[in-house]
Amino acid sequence: MHDYSKTELLNFKNLKSGNEKAFEYFFNKYYSHILGFCIQFIYDKPQSSGITQDAFLNLWLNKGKIEKVSGVESFLYTYAKSKCLNAIRHNQVKERYKSKTLNEKERELDFDILNSMSFDTLALSELEDLISKSIENLPEKTKVIFLKKRFENKKNQDIANELNVTVKTVEAHMTKALKILRLNLSDYLPLVLITLILSKH
Amino acid sequence: MISNLITKYLNGDATEKEVELIFEWIDASEANKKEFIALKKAWALTEVSNTDKDLAWKALQNKIPKAKPTKYKVWIKYAAVLVLFIAIGRLVWINTNQTPEPNNTIVLEIEGSSIKLDSLIQHVTDQSGEVIAEQNNNEIIYKTSKTSAPIEYHTLNIPLGKTFKVTLSDGTKVYLNSGTTFKYPKQFSNNSNRLVYLTGEAFFEVKEDKANPFIVNINDIAVKVLGTKFNVNAYPENSTTSCVLVEGSVQVYNLNNSNNNALITPNHKATWNPASKVFNLKQVNTHLYTAWIHGEIILDSAHFSSFSKKLERAFNVKIINNNSLLEAQEFSGTINFKTSSLADILDLLKFDTYFDYSIEDNQIIISNN
Asked: Among residues B293, B290, B258, which one has the least CA distance to residue B277?
């Protein structure tokens, strides 16, 4: 289970009573995550920024309805998810490829993936704990490379230069990190699969 | 092998050829698909975009409704003397503090002061402290009422890049396009014409009231209606003014000579040429003229120059096209300017006819290549 600090709980209480500083605290905490999440499905930063801004705006407007501190993150992800689904449904997602079939396939798959993601507070905090634990438990070098790549957004070449290794090594570590993550997340897979099969028929 | 490719894909580095390979692999078995989905989910949840958070926070702050308007309302309710003071105070504040700010907020001019309509929800009150209208996001709705007192006018200024909707006190709905100024009575009079003034572009859904005709004044012409839907395009930089009728019946006439008039029937456009002082009637597809209400520009074999002006207004930019090939090309389709960025729209056009462009300040310069 997630442990929320006193600061977090205090900020949540203040957010609910309409304190802008508390709102800013949650904004700083989640903005980059929600934006990153949207970009993974919309592939366009300005459009994703719009959705992210809307998510926070609606968090502010609906702050009274959120019951638990964990509900903040859950609200933001759920909002972003539904807006991304809408964008895909209405063909407002950037076409990345020349091939029409490929664009369609990507959209279809992204739609299914988004649809299968649940952001109720329990699932979200469990999944996140699991992910952060998995990252924590990666072999040291793999972890360093994974964190540089994923959280500092560095290019393979830059990481290679920085750590004095080849680009191939960086790629190998990234692949390893993903394999481990995949293994640890396998508990969540059956659920995904069932949802997928159900939604297909 | 495939893991490598997937990492590349999730990172946005895979080539089209590689993406094709990945999708083939996904299609090969349900297990593959399941694996891919798990990876993408993990990736999406751990993705962090490094971006300028401060800028995003400032933009958001401008959008969140402030508690201030309510306070203001309470004050004027209880202290009439304060009204003048606050009104002046606001005015001074607007004149000094606001000048460096770019002109991108919708402003309502009312009784000598200006109110920024940039919050999500706010009440607009008059001198006596009575709520006369309510702003809700991109819309302002006036309370239904009529008056026998002298008419007081309100003015809405819609900057470039914004659109707005107003419901007048008689129930008439007016959609205002970017770069438009609209002047209308706070309350209409019991027994006289419903007179409003327009510069720019607006779509009207006029509430029927046969006893009090609705009249839109646009420079030297007027549009007289009895209850109908129509679009008026009267931007100052256009050499002509046009009125497109969707429903009902309207009469357009020259204010200097009301004998110079024309009756418009649905699906027709009247164009007024102020130089020759002639109304020209033409049958049109009204959807092309009213699409902007839904945030769309419909192109029907349209040349670039015919819609670039619309893009300029919708995005508050200047577009300079030096590409003759682009101008010669005709485009058909629908552009959604509310949900797409200008870059997206240009990319889409580029897909059809390739061109290069650069952005300098607020200028989009399309080079000749």
From this structure: B258
Angle (CA) B347-B349-B102 rounded to 5° is: 65
Task: Give the residue from B21, B45, B122 with the most A CB atoms within 10 Å of its CB, the best one to mutate.
Answer: B45
Q: What radius of gyration do chain A's Cα atoms show?
A: 19
Mutate to test the interface with A, among B4, B22, B37 (most CBs of A within 10 A): B37
- What is the rounded CA–CA span in Å between residue A59 and residue A69? 12
Residues A172 and A200 in one domain: yes
Among residues B55, B173, B201, B67, the alpha carbon closest in space to that of B123 is found at: B67
Say how many domains are in chain A: 2
Q: Is residue B366 within 8 Å of residue B357, measured between CB atoms?
A: yes
Which domain range does residue A145 map to? 137-201
Domain match, A31 and A79 both: yes
Tell me the pTM.
Answer: 0.48
Whether A40 contacts chain B with CB within 8 A: yes
Summarize pLDDT for B138-193 with one digit per residue, the tens. Answer: 889 998 888 777 788 999 999 988 899 999 999 898 999 988 999 999 999 888 88
Instruction: Confirm whether A126 is domain-assigned.
Output: no
Judge contact between B341 and B295, C-beta under 8 A.
Answer: no
Q: Which amino acid is at A99?
A: S
Structural domains in chain B, CATH included, are 2-46 (no CATH), 59-288 (2.60.120.1440), 296-366 (3.55.50.30)
**Minimum distance, in Å, between the CA of residue B11 and any CA atom of chain A:** 9
Q: Confirm or reject contact between A127 and chain B (CB < 8 A).
A: yes
